[in-house]
Write a structure and sequence with these properties.
The complex is a heterotrimer of chains A (about 80), B (about 220) and C (about 750). Chain A is of the alpha+beta class. Helix content of chain A is about 35%, strand content about 30%. Classes of the chains: A alpha+beta (about 80), B alpha/beta (about 220), C alpha+beta (about 750).
């Protein structure tokens, strides 16, 4: 079976996100004062071949933990279709 | 001509550029501040290199909305001279004053080294009187890989808007001499009106006798 | 105090935080009661090795620290400060960020760079140059490649965005660093004398501001963590990694310098290890003052942070300002201009007591002086024992080493050039912006040390970071003296006069007597050499526990950061590159038959135990004085010190920049391989215009420096003892490409 995973990677909650912080400053300078915290992550789409959904999930999780996310500073979640 | 150099939060080549224009080329230079709305009567505005807003989100994307950019854009639209170097070039593409975009270097690494560039445009102020040969000028960027669509590239070529291309030390435009994967070895472009310039290499870093490379001064001297 | 915060901790909890039973008793004595958890946490970080230097200070005190130029001695301020004349001073310091880089190389290295720059600009100096000294394990291991790539990217991204050129440093590989890389970062700044800021809090009633980033749970107990061995569970034990934000740091730099310029500040200190705790206690102790700190005023990044979390957070890009009462608005306005957050969090008090309040309650009350080095922090003498491996070294006999001759030299040279420790570090250094600031004079004219001009002046500072840990391992005293000698030689070969030293002492666990023996020996060698060269030690940092439970100890690595001066930089800067065909090549310095600790022995011959290379400090000093006179009289055209890889590598490195070659004859008195690959100290290779050979020889003999004519510069041909070895381009390809190739690029 071929599955498609959409992975969202975000800085862990307690980790400083300099990118989000500077972007917020830019937004405030634009006058968009109502915008609060900004945190910036990334979205990764992968295709995975697996015998069932559980196996696909395991594979995506492994890909995330080993390479796609740096779990020391990032967290991830994904949807499988 | 009166020159102005804009400091954005995170600019770090502003003082280098002021020094080069003032001390090496003997020009009147004023320091402009991103939060102001006043170009102080400058004829020529420089957007310097650096990491405005940390280069977060996209290089130049946040700085492009700095208060002073309204005036810079108006100045350019009236035919006034504007030049962006490195991060300044990125701001000008983000602001739509120059075509194209600057992507991550093909190597995905930041690169700082001397490269050679050869003048291309026969009609732009910065190149029209330059000798056609290789100039040694340093680059220092992570996102300098010039990109545009084929239509735009054709337009740039047809209108003589490419100002510099990366080349080897003998002036040959080769793949090996392209440090960052730029389309058509493009190191710099100008707008149709030939009053807005963008350049990835840093001529201000090669403008002083003490640094044993004066090729950059020859480029800047074209603007004076 | 309420019940919750006043609940006394037990000795067991204290022990978990690294406080010994004796230390716990001492704390109870100081306070006159049993501390609560917040208080014991504060002691645990302040009395950790990282902050208190408790196991090293007695040794460090033996180092020479006085000198005519010294404006801030070791330990007095955040960095050393030396007068360079005409109203300017240079501030410089080197610091380690080894353990954070072992866990998360990118952020670990980035925050190391940020931290050392803050030490410099908190004194009011504008950083003008950065250097780094990096040690990694076996490059063929994927883990080493991961660490190297991460560290280099971290240093680059932070330093490049911050806008200070990375002008020099070293990268060294050895399996002893497989799990514990060393990342030492150095910053050099310039400040007008009299316009410096001091790390002091005084004047009761003066407000204290926190400037810069909000406080999160980053790196809590980092200081304690840094004082423990790295083990299997280190990754899970570490709290959130500190993330560097060079953009914030750049704004903080500009705002800080502008605030200092106003004269409205009493004192400034950056926040590094142990965060708010360290800066409040050190500043207060220095001013014999106290401070009332309201933790509720501190901007936090997360909600509901515990008091001890706020106090110990090592969030980056923060500063503490003590402001003259009544001038707060000037500081607030400058911070607003630069979009930097500032908040009053404390008030200076009389009486020397630090009082921390949280949610309206007094949650900790400690005499500032009891926490700090030079005050109540403990000081220990540790046991020393000669390590067993020295016996192996003593067995070494040069006569048993086969001699390389004739054609084999080509094989040896190609082998050495490709060693990651010797090959060009272009893959690394091109990721650093080395030219921002338009002050790096070594870009287009390479020199042994980096020559960084001071804009608007004729002067340049000359900076280098050096240490060959293999030498120090073989003989800590001699090895460390060699590190100082090499640093000084690099500065001299660039035309500079050495003026001062900062050190980064990376060693293993000081509670192991063999490690402490190495440490004490290295300090002796440093003292001897620094006294000889007249270069006082102005500070630095000690990093112990660089070893692993599974992998033994790293080589003792006392990195020497040295600063020198050239008064007339345009005319008197010297470079390492051969300039003209026909110039005569000389070796200056004593010729000895020595291959000790050389790359040739260690890597090519596979001999891991041999004595440290030869060094005679008296001869070394004469050589350096002679070189400076030769440079001043413009009698030499290039100068390059002989070090890693020996004279053969020195010759090639001088030949590469202008694609020149050389034809030389090795001396008959000693083994060919000893001459070509030996790493004995006190030598440099110079080139002389044949028309001025006589004058050159006169100067050499005036200083009593041995010289040896080797041959001449060619337009590319490389020939040794009549054996044509190839064209310089062939060697250059190996030299330039090896490191990238090893990294799969």
């Amino acid at each position: 079976m071929k599955y498609k995973a959409t992975i969202h990677i975000m800085p862990r909650d307690e980790i400083l996100d300099p990118q989000g912080k500077a972007t917020l400053l830019g937004l405030h300078n634009l006058g968009l004062d109502d915008i609060g915290q900004v945190r910036i992550g990334k979205r990764i789409e992968v295709e995975v071949e697996a015998k069932d959904k559980q196996a696909a999930e395991d594979k995506v999780k492994e890909a995330c933990t080993k390479l796609l996310a740096n779990t020391i500073i990032e967290k991830f979640e994904f949807e499988l279709n | 001509m009166k020159f102005g150099v804009v400091t954005f939060p995170g600019s770090n080549c502003d003082h280098d550029l002021i020094y080069a224009m003032r001390e090496n080329l003997g020009q009147e230079v004023v320091h402009l501040w991103h939060k102001d709305h006043d170009l102080q009567g400058c004829d020529f505005i420089f957007l310097p290199g650096g990491f405005s807003y940390g280069d977060y989100l996209r290089s130049g994307a946040i700085a492009r909305f700095s208060p002073i950019m309204d005036e810079v854009i108006a100045h350019a639209n009236k035919g006034g001279y504007v030049m962006g170097i490195c991060n300044g070039f990125q701001m000008l593409t983000e602001a739509g004053l120059l075509d194209g975009a600057l992507l991550h270097n093909a190597s995905t690494r930041f690169i700082c080294k001397n490269v050679h560039i050869v003048p291309a445009s026969r009609s732009a102020l910065i190149t029209q009187n330059l000798e056609h040969k290789a100039y040694k000028v340093p680059i220092a960027h992570g996102e300098g890989n010039y990109f545009c669509t084929p239509d735009v590239l054709k337009k740039l070529q047809d209108n003589d808007q490419v100002i510099f291309r990366y080349c080897d030390e003998n002036g040959r435009i080769t793949d090996a001499a392209n440090p960052n994967g730029s389309l058509d070895n493009i190191a710099g472009v100008c707008n149709v009106g030939k009053n807005v310039f963008g350049l990835m290499p840093h001529p201000e870093r090669a403008a002083d006798e003490m640094l044993a490379n004066m090729d950059g001064r020859k480029l800047l001297a074209q603007l004076v | 105090m309420s019940n919750q915060v006043s609940t006394p901790v037990t000795a067991e909890i204290a022990a978990k935080l690294g406080i010994s039973a004796d230390e716990f008793d001492k704390i109870k004595e100081v306070l006159g009661r049993t501390p609560n958890f917040t208080e014991i946490s504060i002691y645990s970080v302040m009395w950790s090795e990282h902050c208190s230097y408790k196991n090293s200070i007695l040794q460090l005190k033996t180092l020479p620290k006085k000198g005519e130029r010294v404006l801030a001695e070791a330990g007095e301020e955040n960095a050393g400060l030396m007068d360079i004349g005409d109203g300017l001073a240079v501030a410089f310091k080197i610091e380690s960020h080894n353990h954070p880089s072992a866990i998360e190389p990118y952020q670990g290295a980035a925050t190391g760079v940020g931290g050392i720059h803050r030490d410099i600009f908190s004194m009011g100096a504008r950083p003008i140059a950065a250097l780094n000294s990096l040690r990694f394990g076996d490059l063929s291991l994927p883990k080493t490649q991961h660490l190297l790539k991460g560290v280099v990217r971290g240093i680059g991204n932070y330093g490049n965005a911050f806008g200070v050129p990375t002008v020099g440093g070293e990268v060294f590989f050895d399996p002893c660093y497989n799990i514990n890389p060393l990342v030492n970062a150095m910053s050099v700044g310039i400040v007008e004398v009299g316009k410096t800021a001091s790390a002091i809090a005084e004047g009761a009633g003066n407000p204290v501001f926190i400037i810069g980033s909000s406080t999160g749970t980053d790196g809590i107990h980092g200081a304690t963590f840094a004082s423990e061995d790295i083990g299997e569970d280190s990754e899970s034990k570490l709290p959130s990694v500190q993330v560097g934000d060079p953009f914030e740091e750049k704004l903080l730099l500009e705002a800080t310098l502008e605030c200092i310029e106003t004269g409205a500040l009493v004192g400034v200190q950056d926040m590094g290890a142990a965060g708010i705790t360290c800066s409040t206690s050190e500043m207060a102790a220095k001013g014999n003052a106290g401070m009332d700190v309201d933790l509720d005023k501190i901007p936090t990044r997360q909600e509901n942070m515990e008091a001890w979390e706020i106090l110990l957070s090592e969030s980056q890009e923060r500063m503490l300002f003590v402001v003259k009462k009544g001038r707060e608005q000037e500081i607030i306005d400058i911070c607003k201009k630069w979009d930097v957050h500032c908040e009053q969090i404390a008030t200076v008090t009389d009486g020397g007591m630090l009082r921390y309040f949280h949610k309206g309650e007094l949650i900790a009350e400690i005499p500032a002086e009891s926490l700090v080095l030079g005050g109540g922090a403990p000081v220990y003498v540790r046991e020393q024992k000669e390590p067993a491996y020295l016996k192996e070294i003593q067995k070494f006999k040069l006569s048993k080493v086969p001699e390389a001759t004739g054609e084999e030299h080509l094989e040896v040279i190609d082998f050495l050039l490709a060693l990651p420790s010797i090959a060009s570090k272009r893959w690394v250094t091109e990721q650093y912006d080395s030219m921002v600031g338009t002050s790096n004079m070594s870009t287009n004219d390479p020199s042994d040390a980096a020559v960084v001009r001071i804009i608007g002046r004729e002067q340049a500072v000359v900076v280098t970071a050096d240490c060959n840990p293999r030498y120090v391992h073989a003989d800590p005293e001699q090895g460390c003296a060699l590190a100082v000698a090499e640093a000084a030689r690099n500065i001299v070969c660039s035309g500079g006069t050495p003026i001062g030293v900062t050190n980064c002492l990376n060693f293993g666990n000081p509670y192991k007597p063999e490690v402490y023996w190495q440490f004490a020996g290295a300090i002796r060698g440093m003292k001897k050499a620094c006294e000889k060269f007249g270069t006082p030690v102005t500070g630095g940092n000690v990093s112990f526990y660089n070893q692993s439970e599974s992998g033994g100890s790293v080589f003792p690595t006392p990195t020497i950061g040295m600063v020198g001066l050239i008064e007339d930089a345009f005319n008197k800067k010297m470079s390492m590159n051969f300039r003209k065909k026909g110039h005569v090549i000389y070796q200056m310095g004593r010729m000895v038959e020595d291959l000790g600790c050389s790359d040739y022995l260690y890597h090519y011959r596979g001999i891991k135990h041999s004595p440290a290379p030869y060094l005679n400090l008296e001869d070394e000093h004469k050589l350096q004085k002679a070189l400076l006179k030769l440079i001043d009289q413009e009698l030499i055209y290039s100068a390059h010190d002989v070090s890693d890889g020996g004279a053969a590598i020195t010759l090639l490195e001088s030949a590469f920049p202008n694609n020149m070659g050389f034809v030389i004859e090795t001396p008959v008195e000693i083994r060919e391989d000893a001459f070509l690959y030996g790493e004995a100290g006190g030598r440099a290779i110079v080139t002389v215009d044949p028309r001025y050979e006589e004058e050159f020889l006169e100067v050499a003999s005036e200083f009593g420096v041995e010289v040896l004519v080797l041959g001449t510069v060619t337009s590319g041909r490389v020939e040794i003892d009549g054996e044509y070895l190839g064209d310089i381009e062939d060697f250059k390809d190996i030299y330039m490409g090896s490191l990238g190739k090893r990294l799969g690029e």
